[in-house]
Design goal:
alpha+beta; two-stranded antiparallel ribbon; 5-stranded antiparallel β-sheet
């Protein structure tokens, strides 16, 4: 699905795509015909084009899934939004309670947030996670497990011959060792609902404070999954240690104190490395980043800098 196709789906859903609407602005002539004054529809601005095409349309955000198979996920995301609203968790709110299926594509409508007052920081994320981690399981629908390593095989298959077969075999071996180790962990926190991709990029700081903006990765699993993300960001991706300390102070606990942290970190590193591999066939920078990550894992060096991709 490219942008042109996504705009066709917007139109088929009865949503404006931008430009002249070609309809009368006010009233008709005495003969009952439009007076010829055109109305300009709200411009549909493309915000993202990946597994979903995301458009800002007036006071709405519209998400269009790539294929009909994503309909159950869209339904779960809307159920999540309603559940979070009932729990008074600051998060994006749905403008319609059910997805539309338009020409084989799930379409969901969301209320557009006001402009951000500043970039989100780790300290903004911590209170939101505390509130999510205090929630019981939702009624009426079931959250999936956080299958952190579930995509490794697909990503390596997509990488194909672009990566060294020995590197692919190495990552498969890591996956096969970390999967049972992660399943056997004794958590420090009570398991339950988690965000699943707990990074500041998924927080929007508006006039009324921080709001969660991505619900697709919500799961039910070890709460520590949400906390290892920023610990890894500190050690691998250059997050300022002071910003990490502000996060742990606001949350009330540092996951690095937990015996199982190294296992979840290792699993996440394995998944992150394999995720980059899928882009290697068409992007030399992705191949270079993949090779950097694999080398650091082979050498057992936990502090080699990785770069977001």
């Amino acid at each position: 699905m490219d942008e042109a196709r996504a705009r066709d789906i917007l139109a088929a859903a009865g949503l404006p795509t931008g430009g002249e609407a070609g309809r009368a602005a006010r009233g008709t002539t005495d003969g009952g015909e439009a007076d010829g004054v055109a109305v300009r529809e709200p411009e549909a601005a493309l915000l993202a084009l990946g597994e979903n095409a995301v458009f800002a349309v007036g006071d709405l955000v519209v998400k269009i899934g790539r294929e009909a198979e994503l309909l159950p996920r869209a339904e779960r995301e809307l159920a999540l939004a309603a559940w979070l609203e009932e729990a008074d968790i600051p998060a994006v709110r749905a403008a319609e309670p059910k997805p539309r299926l338009v020409e084989g594509h799930p379409v969901t409508l969301w209320h557009r947030l006001p402009d951000a007052v500043r970039p989100a920081e780790p300290r903004d994320l911590a209170p939101l996670l505390r509130r999510i981690h205090a929630l019981p399981e939702p009624a009426g629908f079931t959250l999936p497990r956080r299958e952190l390593l579930g995509g490794v095989e697909r990503w390596l298959r997509l990488a194909g011959d672009a990566i060294d077969p020995a590197d692919a075999a190495f990552l498969r071996e890591r996956r096969d060792s970390f999967a049972p180790a992660a399943a056997a962990l004794t958590p420090h926190l009570a398991p339950g609902p988690i965000h699943g991709d707990a990074l500041p990029r998924n927080v929007h700081v508006g006039p009324e404070g921080p709001v969660l903006v991505d619900l697709e990765t919500f799961s039910s699993d070890l709460r520590e999954h949400d906390l290892v993300v920023l610990a890894l960001s500190r050690d691998r991706y250059g997050l300022d240690p002071a910003a990490y300390d502000a996060f742990t102070e606001a949350y009330g606990w540092d996951v690095r104190e937990w015996d199982g942290c190294a296992v979840l970190r290792g699993a996440r590193e394995t998944a992150s490395c394999a995720w980059v591999a899928q882009h290697a066939p068409t992007n030399p920078q992705a191949l270079a980043e993949f090779e950097r990550r694999v080398a650091s894992l082979r050498e057992g060096d936990p502090e080699v800098r990785w770069y977001p991709f």
